[in-house]
Sequence to fold (208 residues):
Amino acid sequence: MRSSDFAGGRKTMNINNVKFETSFGLAAQLPPSDLPEIAFCGRSNVGKSSMINKVFNRKSLARVSGVPGKTATVNFFLLENIRFIDLPGYGYAKVSKSEKARWGKLMDEFFSSGRALELVFLLLDIRHPPSADDQIMINFLRESGYPFSVILTKADKLSKERQRLRLEGFREEIENSQSLTMTPFSAKTGQGVDEIYAMMRAIAEEDR
Ligand SMILES: Nc1nc2c(ncn2[C@@H]2O[C@H](COP(=O)(O)OP(=O)(O)OP(=O)(O)O)[C@@H](O)[C@H]2O)c(=O)[nH]1
Ligand SMILES: [Mg+2]
Fold:
């Protein structure tokens, strides 16, 4: 199997067919959810847009920036029968009160509007323990009932041994973490991409 053919079975799904669909900044604009969805969330600068670009093997499908707060809107991408969603990051100290309120409303509305979310990737920087905002997000996802999987980003910044130690760290830093999958990932080296494809493939096959 070529790595770009992530859905085996009856029909091969090719990641090169992904298309940017639309972008929304206000909860009221969010389109209804008419296809299975996979969302990417996490704090600003954690690497959500970079992960999307790596997974879809594109340089700038999603916009990446060294400046936190780059993705301020909810961005939709379509690949055959699955919609992928790049969510705006949280925890960026320099945003205004009104911008934080807009973010909160957008996220509340997004996660409470009965979307067909089949999987949420929650991204955490592998180098650091989860922040207070990350812990809030983890609890929020648990309460929402949507299945989610933790992605530990920027793994290229640590040796394999230090990655292993941080994995053990996250197991203790996150309550009841035994039920969570945690996947080290690097948008630089491609570490973890095959595990992501396996999760995407499972969803694509379920919905055929
Ligand atoms: N070394 C390394 N740097 C990364 C990786 N992923 C992202 N980065 C860098 O981290 C910064 C932020 O990446 P983005 O992908 O824009 O992060 P984001 O989570 O989409 O950020 P917002 O849109 O602000 O919420 C950029 O400078 C990226 O180059 C990674 O796997 N390894
Ligand atoms: Mg982004």
